[in-house]
Amino acid sequence: MIDEDLAEYMLDAASKHTPVLAEVRLESTRCTQLALKAGQVDTIASSQDAGMNVKIFFASGVGFSSSNVVSKAEGLRLVRQAVSQAKSARRKSPCTLSAEKAVRTSWEVRQKKSLADVTTEEKLDYLRSLDSAALKTGVKVQGRYYDLKDWETTRFFGNSEGSRIKSFIPRMKVESYNLVSAKGETEQSMREWGGSGGWELKDEWNLLEVLPDEMRMLKKQIEHGKRVKPGKCDLVCGSEVTGIAAHESCGHPMEGDRIQGREMSQAGRSFISEDMIGQRLGSKYATVIDDPGIPGSYGYYAYDEEGVKARPRYLYKEGLINEFLHNRETGSKMGLVSNGSSRAESYLREPIVRMGNTFVAPGDFEEDELFGTVKDGVLMNSFTEWNIDDKRYNQKYVSREAYFIKDGELAGPARKCTIEITTPAFWSAIDAVTKKVRFDAAECGKGDPGQGMSVFTGGPMLRLRGVSLR
Amino acid sequence: MNELKEISQHVVEVARSAGADDVVAEAIVTEVKQVRFSNSQVDAVNSWSEEHLALLVAIGKKVISSDIRTLTDLDPHARALVSLAKKVPPSKTYEGVAPGRFKYRRNPVDGRIVKLRDPSRFVHEAIAGAEGFGANNVGGTFYAIHERVGLASSGGAVGADESTAADLSVRAFSQPEASGHAVCCTPTLTGMEAKKTGERAGEFASHARDPVMGEQGKFDLIVDPLFLGSFIQSTSSMLSAMRVEISNSMYAKKIGKRVASDEVTFIDDPTIRSTTRRAFDHEGVPTRRNVLIKDGILKTYLHNTGTAKRFKTKTTANAGPLIPSAYGSAAQPMAFHPVVVPGDWNKDELIADTKRGLYINNTWYTRYQNYSTGEFSTIPRDAILRVENGEIVGAVKNIRISDNMMNFWKSIDALSRKAQDIYWWEEAAPPSTLPTVRAKQMTITRSA
């Protein structure tokens, strides 16, 4: 239960210090974590958390203070501490915030079957069934680790401008680690499925088929996969590869706080600067959207942590740099309003600019049409090793599942196909995009201390012409 | 501290009375102050306070843990968890809690860190230090951390511990693509060299000016302790017996075998004075100095009570937190303070002795194709300095190291005599004491 009167008390106390803005958040979360290691129960954990924070904005600085003790006395202490901290910042350039209208609302994600009503035994049975399904393939799976986490979060947000927002969001995720071996070699698979909703999410994931298919696929990669001859050829990216590229080389470099330097000593800066809006970065087929509003998505939210309504943001639009991700502070610095990108992992951490669900917009190709004009190429369906530099310009993806394309037809498996490419080169090489968009769940890392954030990455299949592979 | 110990003892008694066979309770109170800065000014001053009790209970082999997010009125929580334990299926691999009554070292804490009200002055000193070396844009983080712990277990462990830390991270830019990074990690405020840390970052940024596109090929790499800290993260994690159990480690089946060059001795030592000095692990076993790799030969994995029994050995007192993280079990063995034993070179000698190489300040985003074989890549950042015929001849950019982690450790042929305490964000973690090292003939790649 959230004590809204406590939030009002804290906002009153904060307002007496006449800040530019005061924000108060109260939160309560129930969480269960289970893990199965090599078929055996490894971990069962259950917790209930509650806490609150205060964020104070003065022109001279920002102060944020949080605690997991929920009481009036602690609320008053947090307010005093945040005020004192904000005053100690002594910024050279004043802190400004975009003007946003006050909102009074509540929102929730509904569950068909409540996560809280599913017993531990039921959840473990589900993990056991995944393990059995992997074993029944007959593939030698040396490493088997599955974990399931579900959590339900109730929040209350209020600010000194009159916003009052209540929310409830349940989320669940499953992570798998498998090491498949054959012919004395191994291939690794680390995957994640997640969403907002109830126990019904597992039915959409269909892991009883997906995981065994993954084991069989990895075995084929080991037994029949051949290395790609290094050089230029066409590349078709499956939606998993499309999604990671959208997240890493569009979503991150388009974060307003990164562009303005706030993450410079951690996740880094961006090769994109404020004055590059409207510049061409990719082909006309490169449209990347971040939309927190996708129902059931892992990155879903209706209002952000500053009370701003979430909406789709067209980051790259038909190849042009179009719109950055902003909170009230970064938006204000560019003379804009927030586009609802403020998120926090929990009440303990300061909200910062984050992605929701980042994906490439669909095109008009059917999937089988994409290969037709590819004489010599590779389909990279999924990836294992990946990384990108801190300005988000040089990225690398190594395939987990890939196939050669010869004269418009899929040929045998291509093993550990690697693309190492700049961001403009990747997005400029696209000449065809399929109709169907698929999503993957991921934990996005950013902030200091690091805040893991639930997101979707995704998109359709992309065809890139003449890129270097090895 | 005694209060936290008593709380934990009381919870153990309540859980035992409710029917638990095994109980470990760890009461933790953490106070953190943080200053975030960028563009050479403070962005925000943050603080957070947490008090909670990590509780593990077992009835036979039925085990469950919980993070109880309060330290008041704990009895109902403890009883509820025991009731839940009765309903969960047994974990066949559960091996009980560490038996024994232990004596613990007392760790000194710095009252000045505990009472620090305005940490911003360290940030301003660091910015000035970096600007003094030509930096025009400086960012980073300053942390002051105070943690108190009380632990009790049904095995007989009862203890209290306390630690303080001041961590400063400074990244300085002299040009948009020329930067340097330096850190200072100390358990006492007198050890906080804010200005010098800024100066080191600024000096790197100055050397990194006007970088040119890096070349692909084989290079000898001289890597700063900060860079090595990123490799320590994944390397030390793969030394956890839990990672070995699920074949998620290049160290599986390698005990007694060569896993590094004979120059490399790798220790986990939470007993030395550092920001991660601790008296006991999360099962209450007194921590100790563990030699994991000696002269390049793998001697032991990191163990808790359970993994030690399954591997037919003794715990190394490396039980991790009772509350699991992703891909991690409750009490999963973890390194607390890795140390790479220094060698006998100084930094200038390392450079003078290198014909074709790169001196690298920092790296990030180290990712593996396959943990069981060690293929990885990582992206150097901040100063990447080209070394030719024993001299630094300029800076490069846009390169990636694409190689094998076992190969990296086996390729080390020289280590500096000076080591530094390192901790940075999520990359160079856990806090470690590391020298500068040289690895021969590593593979550099770049975007085509």
Total count of helical runs of at least 4 residues of chain A: 9
Shape of chain A: globular
Multimeric status of the protein: heterodimer
First-to-last CA distance of chain A? 56 Å
Poorly predicted parts of chain B? none
Distance between the termini of chain B: 58 Å
Class by helix and strand content of chain A?
alpha+beta
Shape of chain B: globular
- Strand % of chain B is 35-45%
The secondary-structure class of chain B comes to alpha+beta
Mean pLDDT of chain B: 96
Q: Radius of gyration of chain A in whole Å, from Cα?
A: 24 Å
- Biggest β-sheet description of chain B: 6 strands, antiparallel
What percentage of the residues of chain A does DSSP assign to strands (E)? 35-45%
Give the largest interface.
Answer: A-B, 91 and 84 residues
Number of strands of chain B: 18
- Secondary structure: helix percent of chain A: 10-25%
* SSE succession of chain B: HEEEHHHEEEHEEHHEEEHEHEEEEHEE
Explain what this protein looks like in three dimensions:
The complex is a heterodimer of chains A (470) and B (448). In chain A, strand 2 and strand 3 form a beta hairpin. In chain A, helix 1 packs parallel to helix 2 and helix 3 (120-136) runs parallel beside helix 5. In chain A, the strands form four sheets. In chain A, strands 1, 2, 3, 4, 5, 6 and 7 form a seven-stranded mixed beta sheet that branches. In chain A, strands 8, 15, 16, 17, 18, 19 and 22 form a seven-stranded mixed beta sheet that branches. The model of chain A has no long low-confidence stretch (mean pLDDT 97). Chain A has helices spanning 4-15, 72-88, 120-136, 201-205, 207-224, 239-251, 256-259, 328-333, 423-428; strands spanning 21-37, 40-58, 61-67, 104-108, 140-159, 164-182, 185-196, 231-237, 288-290, 313-317, 320-321, 342-343, 352-353, 357-360, 376-388, 394-406, 409-413, 418-422, 430-433, 438-446, 451-459, 462-469. Chain A contains nine helices and 22 strands. With 470 residues, chain A is of the alpha+beta class. Chain B is globular, with a radius of gyration of 23 Å. In chain B, helix 4 (120-131) runs parallel beside helix 5 (194-207). The longest helix of chain B has 16 residues, at 2-17. By secondary structure, chain B is an alpha+beta fold. In chain B, the strands form three sheets. In chain B, strands 3-2-1-4-5-6 form a six-stranded antiparallel beta sheet. Chain B has ten helices and 18 strands. Chain B starts with a helix and ends with a strand. Chains A and B meet through strand 1, strand 2, strand 3, helix 2 and helix 3 of A and strand 1, strand 2, strand 3, helix 2 and strand 4 of B. Strand 3 of chain A pairs parallel with strand 2 of chain B, so a sheet runs across the interface.
